[in-house]
Amino acid sequence: MADKKKTDQQTVQATDAKGNPIISAPPSGWRVIFREFTHDKGAMVAFVIMMFIILAAVIGSFFVPQSRYTDVNIMWQWARPGTDGLILGADESGRDVFASLIVGMRNSIGIGWGVAILIELIGIIVGLCSGYFGGWIDNILMRITDFFMILPALMIQIVVITIVPKFSIWVLITMITALGWMSTARLYRAAVLSQAKRDYVLASKTSGSSSFKIMFFEVLPNISSLLLVDITLTFATSVGVETGLTFLGYGLPDTTPSIGRLISYASDPVNMQNYPWSWLPATLMLIILSLSVNYVGKALQRAADARQRLG
């Protein structure tokens, strides 16, 4: 009994020189998210794969000669992999498939991040204003959101591509953003509604803080983990939309390399069977990127939920 008492006293003295127990502060929200995410081995593997593909596409595109994916070379038409140094062979126009894959992935990733950032900006502004002010402002913004949600997005995109004389990457980013921000706005609205009646918001209103300051400097930081999750999933969705439009022939121009254009070779049964190197690498790359990004997004969502549970 005496030994146990002595051990307990040593434990207390080891924790505090004055004999008082030390109460450690709870970890911050971002620290909880980081800890939960890094403890998920599958998420870390997916994150490494995602970053490898993104960095390889972005950095590798600077070392690919432009002539490899733009110039037509009849001598290399449907050249097999390994012919004249062609790692993945050539397509029907004699363009290097590997060069087109690297640059096309860079373009698709750039479009994906561009759309994701713009959608998050619109969603944050609409969601904050709608959830914070409520009343007639909420009604107007939500009715506008509902109107955009019922629009036939694919039909509008095809019409825009048909009537725009100089279709470019920026037009595609603008078009996808204009028809894809509604779900994000509703997501932020729901999060802001749960924060608007919290004590810290009521205290800020009582102290005379402006609505702008409360929304962007107090409410927004408290839902910032939602941004991390949603922008990741929106990026994956945007890459898929761009690839699908290009595959159907309504995306990037034929002169601009794209993953969708490479995959579109599989729409021809002859190409699909006889020239698999023209479409298979791009298909595998898109599947791997989509799976890894979605897994990272879901892992971040689980980490954010853990942060919420811990307060």
Automatic annotation (TrEMBL):
A Pfam family: BPD_transp_1
Stretches for region Disordered: 1-22
Coiled-coil annotated spans: none
InterPro entries attached to this UniProt entry: BP-dependent_transpt_permease, MetI-like, MetI-like_sf, OppC_N
Lineage: superkingdom: Bacteria
Keyword terms of this UniProt record: Cell membrane, Membrane, Transmembrane, Transmembrane helix, Transport
Cellular-component GO terms for this entry: plasma membrane
TM annotation in the entry: 43-64, 111-133, 140-163, 169-188, 219-241, 277-297
Domain ABC transmembrane type-1: 105-297
Membrane topology: Multi-pass membrane protein
Cross-referenced SUPFAM superfamilies: MetI-like
Gene Ontology BP annotations: transmembrane transport
CDD domains linked to this entry: TM_PBP2
Main localization of the protein described in the UniProt heading: membrane
Subcellular location field: Cell membrane
Protein family per UniProt: Belongs to the binding-protein-dependent transport system permease family.
Name of the protein this chain belongs to: OppC
